[in-house]
Amino acid sequence: MKDLIVNQISGRGLPLIGDDIDTDRIMPARYLKELTFSNLGKYVFADEIISSEKKGLTHPFVDPTYQGANFLIVNSNFGCGSSREHAPQGIKRWGIDCIIGVSFSEIFFSNCYSIGLPCLTVNPELAEQIQNIILQNPTAGISLDLTVGKLSIAENLFSYFLDPGLQSAFTTGNWDQTKGLLYNEHLIAKKRQELPYLFSSL
Amino acid sequence: MGKTLYSKVFDEHVVSELKPGVFQLFIGLHLIHEVTTPQAFAMLEELGLKVKYPELTFATIDHIIPTKHTQRPFLDILSEDMASELERNVKQYGIRYFSPQNGEQGIVHVIGPEQGLTQPGITICCGDSHTATHGAFGAIAFGIGTSQVRDVLATQTLATQKLKVRRINVNGKLAPGVYAKDVILYIINKLGANGGGGYAYEYGGDVFDRFTMEERMTVCNMSIEGSARCGYVNPDQTTYDFIKGRPYAPKDSDWDARLKYWESIKSDSDAIYDDIVNYRAEEIAPMVTWGIGLDQSVSITSPLPQNPESANMNAAGFTEAMEYMQFTPGEKLIGKKIDLAFLGSCTNARVSDFQLVADLISQNNFKVAAGVQALVVPGSQNVKVELEKLGILKTLAAAGFEIREPGCSMCLGMNPDQLVGDQLCASTSNRNYKGRMGSPTGRTLIMSPAMVTAAAVTGEIQDCRKVFNIK
Ligand code: SF4
Prior knowledge:
The structure holds two protein chains of two kinds.
Chain A: E1 8-11, E2 13-15, H1 23-26, H2 46-54, E3 71-73, H3 86-94, E4 98-101, H4 106-114, E5 119-121, H5 124-136, E6 142-145, E7 150-153, E8 156-158, H6 164-172, H7 177-183, H8 185-194
Chain B: H1 5-13, E1 14-19, E2 22-26, E3 29-32, H2 38-46, E4 57-60, H3 77-93, E5 96-98, H4 108-115, E6 123-126, E7 140-143, H5 146-155, E8 157-161, E9 164-171, H6 180-191, E10 199-204, H7 206-210, H8 213-221, E11 230-233, H9 237-243, H10 252-264, E12 275-280, E13 287-289, E14 297-299, H11 308-311, H12 315-325, E15 340-343, H13 351-362, E16 373-376, H14 381-389, H15 392-398, E17 402-403, E18 424-427, E19 443-446, H16 449-458, H17 464-467
Parallel strand pairs in B: 3-4, 3-6, 4-5, 6-7, 9-10, 9-12, 10-11, 15-16, 15-18, 16-17, 18-19
Antiparallel strand pairs in B: 1-2, 2-8, 13-14
The complex binds iron/sulfur cluster (SF4).
């Protein structure tokens, strides 16, 4: 359980600007053919990186300035679209420990939770403000203490929202749900008996 | 105080409250496909766990399967590995597999209803965001990630919060040439791609009462494009007639008992909703998306938005979408040359969809326009057999459509059917995201099967009502 505890995170930020960034962009479909998640860190935003290059731009995920960053700062409806867990898996394996944004798609949010990656929500102005701080000062230190609910960026405190239940699940290492679900084995069997329908394979 | 179907079915399946507001929900039907499950089975093995109720999980293969060269081993090694891995897992755990070999394969969201597995009042999960399709039958159906697939395999339950419910009424009568696809594109346009966050959508009103099951499925399918994790329609006689006689439908005396349950879980007439919106069917025209999000759409008769404000977008997002699509603000879509027409996907690849296409083209002997590749990809092997029987495939082939084997095909770039470069594709699928069809610069316009057919035969974006004289 101990290695599952997510309480204090500190490091630097990576601003990724734009609403409605979907999981097809985060992890293009062709990389979903891998049978394990282990290599996915290499493919995050693969196509966006190439199209940025073509325009003579550097995508934040390959910008040397942000290498080593572990807080990802996004805008609204991040991770919409496909349910592919490959998207948060890739982001996590790239090195991100926490995502801060205005809003997240529900499936993406719950996928992040399932892999121990906290997504904090902030209001739209704040998200932009944080992105701007980092754009101006990429080495600005960010630290998050989930045990007391404190987020500080470049020495300033910011307020964020994370459901208290989820927050404590992270800090106690209880976000890994399988164990809790298995625990209620007798209740599951009972529910199965009670349901007014049941399939059996033909 | 009345309850909604969502609330009744959810409560019926709660095993326990894990912590305040987080419920352990029993999943009555678990559907799986090859892409989002190998890692889940691996995790299961790592944890030393078994599949708890293998008889409640059903598998098929759809995303990576080629639609042209279908012989094994697949030409693409990674796809072959993925297929073998699925086969190994279903065998090891004793999971029923609707396979190409036994003629039951297809897109997972086409298979469930086709087999009679998708029924009112049940909970359905699949590692796929378009699981909402099954809500058309009055089920609570939603997509999950791979870690949750692991949880469902191991415990037949998952941890989830209860959604709010928004009732969406569409009353009145749809004009000729306006279809279910236009209805959902219209709803997403009005409520926004982000508008359904935290909600389940309950669709109702005259239009839904009259809709066939196929039409209801088309609408529910795209709930997630409006950010609603699940969408549903209350069951009625249309639902029951569709289910009756299918392989997994209740039989004989079971039928009556089940029917009682189905009737009991309908939303009460005095049900309390968290939100209600009302639309008039008469206001809906054929819709086309023009951008890289599903709310970036216009009715075919309107020009593209002039500016971010009229598109209800921020400036950066508006410019990005216009640039990616190579469109100019304010211009008309009518007359834009297309490279490909794609008729398929879990949104619109059922018999009735292709029947409509065949009817439209045979009235005037229309042919696929020169220079256009038009793909017809049935949703399942059973759909294909039926189309064959009805003579539809013959009609379509004679008109120049390329008939393929069932699968997800062009809908996403995981199999050989992909756009090349910045090709423009008129598509009946559900996503127009950047790179969705396999080419990082490929462009997708989402529309109804009738609109795609109009594009296929004219070689450009046109109003289906004009092309086919639909009155
Ligand atoms: S047809 Fe498209 S949307 Fe439907 S399941 Fe396949 S890939 Fe997903």
